[in-house]
Design goal:
The complex is a heterodimer of chains A (about 500) and B (about 425).
Chain A: H1 19-35, E1 43-48, H2 50-58, H3 69-83, E2 92-95, E3 100-105, H4 110-130, H5 132-137, H6 143-161, H7 163-175, H8 192-214, H9 240-247, H10 253-274, H11 276-296, H12 302-315, H13 331-347, H14 351-356, H15 365-375, H16 378-385, H17 388-394, E4 397-402, E5 407-412, H18 419-429, H19 432-435, E6 438-444, E7 452-457, H20 468-479, E8 483-488, E9 494-500
Parallel strand pairs in A: 1-3, 7-8
Antiparallel strand pairs in A: 2-3, 4-5, 6-7, 8-9
Chain B: E1 2-6, H1 16-25, H2 27-40, E2 50-54, H3 56-59, E3 71-76, E4 87-89, E5 113-117, H4 119-127, H5 135-144, E6 146-154, H6 164-198, H7 206-224, E7 235-242, E8 247-255, H8 262-282, E9 285-293, E10 297-300, H9 302-307, H10 316-330, E11 337-344, H11 350-367, E12 370-376, H12 383-394, E13 398-403, H13 409-416
Parallel strand pairs in B: 8-9, 8-11, 11-12, 12-13
Antiparallel strand pairs in B: 2-5, 6-7, 9-10
Helix pairs in contact in B: 6-7, 10-11, 11-12
Classes of the chains: A alpha/beta (about 500), B alpha/beta (about 425).
């Protein structure tokens, strides 16, 4: 139904926004979202300018962040491409915090503001609140406070120990940021006050523990008795930054705290890296559904919808692999298609759907979607929900690239024999554990030169990139002694190794 | 519960500090780039920003990642003709289609990291570790130096600051204003009395008595108005104004005789501009005086200085005489920092060079902060150069340098104003 001018709630047909109109739009979106049963954190909408948007980009979207040259670098490159018109800015940035902060750019038209509100303030927001990964790993109540704590603490360190010392350490931590994540242990939730109070305590305690570990200086005559020395760590440790924070022999307490800060931030972003398809798909599905509903109610008109579709179709466009514009699978496209498909399977199941999704076909779509949103990450979501119809629609095909053979082989396509295979392959493609090299702390030579050995267990014989040697230098800087990186095959056979020797310290 | 907040008015330069950190870290590369830019660009647009290029590998933030090799099995959209089991050649160019995730590739992109320095930043790099000679002294003086300055009048102050004229003028005005009504009445009463008396009315007449009483009363009332009241007092108001010692005068002295050809003049011009730019950074206010000379010297405006054609011989001392005269007349007080930049091709009449030396040593050098002399020539040094060498030996604030091509200017400039060790 087109916009009904007699409807008192109808939005005026204009593209300029005003604060009153944004509030009105938000009220409508909120009402519709509530009727659909979306559960969200309270919203905080902030109108910002393009420059501020670039600022937000530079600090990975956080409203506060500590200072580091790399953020400056990101800002400069964003600014450059924005000024040259090579790149538009994202319409929205939303922060997983409580209240949930969503940025509205002042350049956006009223339609775009409505889209952003529905997408970010209700789509992403409800995902942050509902998805199990975010519930487990992030603490929306505390993140902004924690960033304030981190910023202040690092600024204080800069004053005390010099900008250079802090910068070098942060460089090293950033190099290992993806390896500062606990995949299985659940972090404790702490408020800012507790964090500050406990920081001091932790400093002293951590230092005493480190000293205890390194206390035993072997005497010559005892050496033989130590042959069977216990290996350390007893189990390999996947969280490199955690290990360094706890056991690096020479770090000062403030340095350990900095390692901890980068590790915490990395942990906070970990769920986002694992739920790209789902998160964007969910938000896109909801902005689409909510705005359609507003149109049905006659609140927005045809002009509004045309502008909305223009930008919506851009967002969910998936170029084929043969296109020069192809750069991998568009998470918005895949996510939106899958969410829409779940609704379709619930509402209008075909025989194929009944066979593939017997428990879901014909049930309440809102419940099915809600369940999917809460309990999956990209990998498992695809493995569970990618339907044969979507595989056909996308014309998915799997290509095997084995460096031992001269040619690439098409291993499966979108046909009866290939559905399950393609689905599994695509799911694996989103498994962060496969995407990033599996590198863990293997052993520390506690008795002799204190050398640290990392172990890279190869996946599918994939080699490390050439930056590995550089990263190793950073590890050596943090550890303070020699560092080795061994590459082994899945059976544990040593294939190659890299080494970074630490120069003798002068003190 | 929703908040709608307008953040646009808050600072947009949240990243300024990160930007500054970035510049700080890559200072070396940026300085090199600035150095190259200065060599390459015309001096007239020296005050623009600059695009700085840093090799991407230097700004790279390394991370562990996979490289090509081993087994990659990827799912891609948009299959058109393939069937299971089809084989085809690897796409060329390392990646492309079918390698969606290998973007973390080992070959760094060929692109350099390019960004723009603002004009301000560019100039800062340009001038870095240059400092005006003897500036420490001047700067120290500049912060403490205050000057008392009149700033109108005040209602309060110390008795010594009472401004008599203002106070009395105020008192007079007040007396007129306050007594106005009574005075008019008095005049009227007196006129009435006079007319009664003219009509021969008896002195004892009740009307006359009443009028006399009235007149007496009014007179007393007028007399009661104070001649001066505390309210009238005005005090001279004086305020402290920081004394602008941050002003400099720059003398450009150039030989415009026939031997100075266009390209030499151009070189000289660049030298002056550089000096000017630097002074502009250090001082709030700069006067520039242009003195050109051949056998006679004249003070001219900038356009004439650089563009008018002259010919004839060279008498350098004529310019120095004029310089000395201008300093004495206009810039003699301690409030001016005088800088002289002289450019010449080294030609001079033989016996004049000795005179120049004496003029410089005896009168000019004590009066100026710094004197720079560049000789734009590729020939052997002539007598003027030798005499100036003598001056340089005795005066620390005298610098001279020989330059040949425009490309030499920048190093010369740095040499002339190298940061002094405190």
């Amino acid at each position: 139904m087109p916009r009904d001018p007699n409807n008192p709630r109808a939005l005026p047909e204009q593209s300029e926004w005003t604060f009153e109109l944004i509030e009105q739009v938000h009220e409508e979106v909120r009402r519709v979202a509530r009727d659909f049963g979306l559960d969200t954190y309270p919203n905080q909408l902030e109108v910002i300018s393009a420059e501020q948007m670039m600022d937000a980009y530079a600090s990975v979207g956080m409203p506060v962040s500590y200072n580091h040259w790399s953020f400056g670098k990101h800002f400069l490159s964003t600014e450059k491409s924005y000024k040259r018109g090579q790149m538009g800015l994202a319409y929205e940035i939303v922060i997983n915090s409580n209240p949930c902060i969503a940025y509205l750019m002042e350049e956006n038209s009223l339609t775009m503001q409505a889209l952003v509100i529905a997408h970010a303030a209700y789509g992403h927001n409800s995902f942050f609140k509902g998805n199990y990964l975010f519930r487990t790993w992030t603490d929306a109540d505390a993140i902004v406070d924690y960033m304030v704590f981190a910023k202040n603490y690092i600024a204080e360190c800069e004053q005390r120990h010099g900008i250079d010392a802090v910068e070098l350490l942060l460089d090293s931590c950033h190099a290992l940021q993806n390896y500062g994540v606990d995949r299985y242990k659940r972090p404790a939730k702490l408020s800012l006050a507790q964090e500050t109070a406990r920081q001091k305590e932790r400093e002293e305690y951590a230092q005493s523990q480190v000293n205890a570990l390194w206390r035993t200086v072997p005497r010559r005559d005892e050496e033989e008795a130590l042959v069977a020395a216990k290996r350390f760590p007893p189990e390999p440790e996947e969280n490199l930054l955690y290990f360094i924070e706890k056991y690096a022999p020479l770090l000062e307490p403030w340095q350990r705290e900095l390692v901890r800060i980068t590790r915490k931030i990395s942990q906070y972003f970990y769920p986002q890296r694992q739920t790209q398809v789902m998160n964007e798909g969910w938000a896109t599905f909801w902005h689409y559904t909510i705005l359609q509903e507003l149109y049905k109610e006659g609140i927005v008109g045809d002009g509004f919808m045309l502008e909305f579709f223009q930008s919506h179709t851009n967002v969910v466009f998936q170029p084929p692999a043969t296109s020069p514009h192809y750069s991998g699978i568009n998470p918005y496209a895949l996510g939106f298609a899958m969410m829409t498909d779940i609704r379709r399977i619930c509402e209008h199941p075909t025989d194929e759907d009944r066979e593939w999704f017997p428990a879901m076909a014909g049930t309440d779509w809102r419940k099915a979607l809600d369940f999917a949103m809460r309990n999956f990450k990209d990998e498992s979501f695809i493995a569970q929900y990618l339907s044969p119809k979507l595989i056909r629609d996308f014309h998915f095909f799997a290509v095997l690239d084995d460096d031992r053979s001269d040619k690439l082989t098409v291993s499966a396509i979108h046909d009866e024999r290939g559905y399950r295979y393609v689905r599994q392959q695509l799911a694996d493609q989103y498994n962060l554990g496969n995407r990033e090299p599996n590198i863990q702390v293997w052993q520390v030579n506690t008795r002799d030169d204190r050398a640290l050995t990392l172990r890279h267990t190869q996946f599918q014989r994939r080699p490390l990139n050439q930056q590995a040697q550089e990263v190793l230098k950073h590890v050596a800087r943090l550890w303070g002694f020699d560092v080795r990186l061994e590459t082994v095959d899945p059976a544990g056979k040593l294939i190659s190794s890299l080494e970074c020797r630490r120069e003798k310290r002068s003190h | 519960m929703t908040y709608l907040i307008d953040r646009r008015l808050q600072g947009k330069n949240k990243s300024a500090i990160n930007r500054e950190r970035f510049l700080r870290r890559y200072k070396g590369q940026i300085k090199d780039a600035v150095g190259r830019a200065i060599k390459g660009r015309s001096i007239t647009d020296i005050e623009n920003g600059e695009k700085v290029t840093i090799p991407v590998k230097d700004v790279n933030e390394p991370n562990f990642g996979h490289a090509h090799g081993g087994v990659w099995e990827t799912v891609n959209p948009g299959n058109r003709e393939y069937q299971k089991g089809d084989q085809f050649n690897r796409p060329r160019g390392g990646g492309g289609s079918g390698r969606g995730k290998a973007g973390n590739s080992e070959q760094p992109t060929e692109d350099d990291f390019i960004f723009e320095l603002s004009r301000e930043e560019f100039m800062n790099y340009f001038f870095e570790d240059l400092e005006l000679p003897n500036m420490v002294k001047t700067q120290l003086a500049q912060t403490i130096d205050f000057k008392q300055q009149r700033a109108g009048y005040n209602m309060s102050g110390t008795p010594s600051n009472i401004h008599v004229l203002r106070s009395l003028r105020g008192a007079l005005g007040r007396r007129i204003a306050v007594g106005g009504g009574s005075r008019k009445e008095l005049v009227r009463a007196e006129r009435e009395l006079q007319s009664l008396l003219d009509d021969k009315v008896s002195e004892e007449d009740a009307r006359v008595v009443a009028l006399k009483k009235r007149i007496h009363h009014l007179r007393t009332k007028l007399l009661a108005i104070p001649f001066i009241d505390p309210f009238d007092l005005r005090y001279t108001n004086r305020i402290k104004v920081p004394k602008p010692t941050t002003q400099a005068v720059m003398f450009c002295v150039m030989d415009v005789s026939g031997s100075m050809d266009e390209s030499r003049k151009d070189t000289a011009k660049r030298f002056f501009i550089l000096l000017y730019l630097f002074l502009k950074r250090a001082y709030e206010k700069i006067d520039v005086v242009f003195i050109r000379h051949h056998t006679a010297a004249a003070e001219v405006d900038e356009n004439d200085f650089f563009h008018s054609r002259e010919s004839g011989g060279t008498v350098v001392s004529s310019a120095l005489h004029l310089l000395q005269k201008i300093i004495a007349e206009r810039y003699s007080s301690g409030e001016w920092n005088s800088y002289v930049a002289q450019a010449s091709d080294g030609d001079n009449w033989d016996n004049d060079s000795v005179m120049c030396k004496q003029l410089l040593s005896n009168t000019i050098m004590p009066a100026v902060q710094y004197y720079t002399y560049v000789e734009i020539t590729d020939g052997p040094p002539q007598n003027l150069w030798e005499q100036y060498m003598e001056v340089a030996r005795h005066h620390q604030n005298f610098a001279m340098q020989k330059i040949v091509t425009p490309a030499d200017i920048y190093p010369v400039f740095r040499e002339l104003f190298k940061k002094q060790i405190k």
